[in-house]
Amino acid sequence: MDTITHKKNVQKYYSKRAEDYDGQKVTTLKSKQGFGAEILNGVTDALAGLENKPVLEVGVGSGRIGFPLLEKVKPWLVGLDLSKKTLELAKARMSHYKQRFDLILGDAEHLPFQNSVFNGIVCISIMHYFVFPERSLAEFSRTLKEEGVFVYGDVTMHELDSQQFLDKLEKTLSQAHARYCWPSEMRRLLENQGFLFSEIKVIPYRKSYLSLMGDREKYSDVKPETLHKCIRDATANEMKLYLIDSKGLTLFYTLIAALEGSRS
Ligand SMILES: C[S@@+](CC[C@H](N)C(=O)[O-])C[C@H]1O[C@@H](n2cnc3c(N)ncnc32)[C@H](O)[C@@H]1O
C-alpha cells in the first residue's frame, strides 16, 4: 500500500473514531498512579523550562496530552494532526488556554514550518502509524532549534521479539497500523538523524484482551476470535516475553527524550 492511501486510512479511521478514542484514553490518564500518569509525567518533565516557548505536538489528537502540557509546562503550543475531527475535540478541550495554542491540519512528514523554530517537539502514540518513521524524524530535526527537546512515546516490541509477534498481532487488528519499532531501533533512527541521546524508559503494563479489542469490532470489523487465534499461535518464547496468560498480556511503552544536535 502506498503512503498516501495509508494516511487516508488513518484519517478516515480517526474521523469515525475520534470521540470513542478520546473517551477511552482520557479514562486511562485519570488514574493518579500507573501507566497514563507515568507517560504524562515523563513528557512534562522532559519539557520543563519551556514556559512561553514554542512547542509542537505532532498528532495532537483530541488534546489529552496537549491540555495537561498547557496547564503544567505553559508553552506556546502548536498542535498538528491529520484528522480534522480530532482537532475539533482538541480545540474544545483546550479552549481555556486559547491565547496559547494553535491547531493545524497537517502531515508529520511535511511540516509547514521553517527550519529551527521549535524548542520542543512531542510525538506520543503516533509513530506506529508511520510507514517511514525516518521521514518524519528528519522533519522534526529540521524544525527543532539546536538543543531543542524531542519527546517520543509509543508502544514498542519487546527487544527480543525477533519474529515481530506484536507487530503481526496489531496488523491483524488494525488497518491503520503501519509498524511497531523495537526501543533500540528507535534510538538508532534518532541517532541517524543527529539527535543526541538523553533518556530512555521502557514502561511495562498489563493489557486485558477485552481492552486490547476495545472498539476494534466497531471500527475495523475485527472479531475477538481473530485476536484469540493470534494469541493461540504465539510460540513459547513469545508467551514468555509478553507474559501471555488466559486474560491478557504485558505490553511495553517506550518514552525517549532526545536533544537536537548541532548542525555545523
Ligand atoms: C493514537 S492517537 C494519539 C493522539 C495523542 N498524541 C494522544 O496521545 O492522545 C494518533 C493520532 O495521530 C494522528 N496521526 C496519524 N498519522 C499522522 C500523520 N502522518 N501526521 C499527523 N498526524 C497523524 C491521528 O490522526 C491521531 O489523531
Protein described:
With 264 residues, the protein is an alpha/beta fold. The model has no long low-confidence stretch (mean pLDDT 92). The radius of gyration is 18 Å and the shape is globular. It has one domain (3-208, 250-260): 3-Layer(aba) Sandwich (Rossmann fold). The chain has helices spanning 3-30, 35-46, 66-72, 84-93, 133-143, 165-173, 183-192, 209-213, 216-220, 224-232, 236-241; strands at 54-58, 76-81, 101-105, 118-124, 144-156, 195-208, 248-260. A 7-stranded mixed beta sheet has the order 3-2-1-4-5-7-6, with helices on both faces. The protein has 11 helices and 7 strands. 42% of the residues lie in helices and 24% in strands. 38% of the residues are buried. The longest helix is centred in the N-terminal third of the chain and has 28 residues, at 3-30. Helix 1 (3-30) runs parallel beside helix 4 and helix 6 runs antiparallel to helix 10. S-adenosylmethionine binds next to helix 1 and strand 2.
Keywords:
alpha/beta, globular, 264 residues, seven-stranded mixed beta sheet, binds S-adenosylmethionine, Rossmann fold
Summarize the topology.
Blueprint: H1 3-30, H2 35-46, E1 54-58, H3 66-72, E2 76-81, H4 84-93, E3 101-105, E4 118-124, H5 133-143, E5 144-156, H6 165-173, H7 183-192, E6 195-208, H8 209-213, H9 216-220, H10 224-232, H11 236-241, E7 248-260
Parallel strand pairs: 1-2, 1-4, 2-3, 4-5
Antiparallel strand pairs: 5-7, 6-7
The protein binds S-adenosylmethionine.
What structural class do the secondary elements suggest?
alpha/beta
Count the DSSP helices: 11
Query: What order do the SSEs take from the amino end to the carboxyl end, as H and E?
Result: HHEHEHEEHEHHEHHHHE
- How is the largest sheet built, in terms of strand order? 3-2-1-4-5-7-6
| Rg | 18 Å
Tell me which CATH architecture applies here. 3-Layer(aba) Sandwich
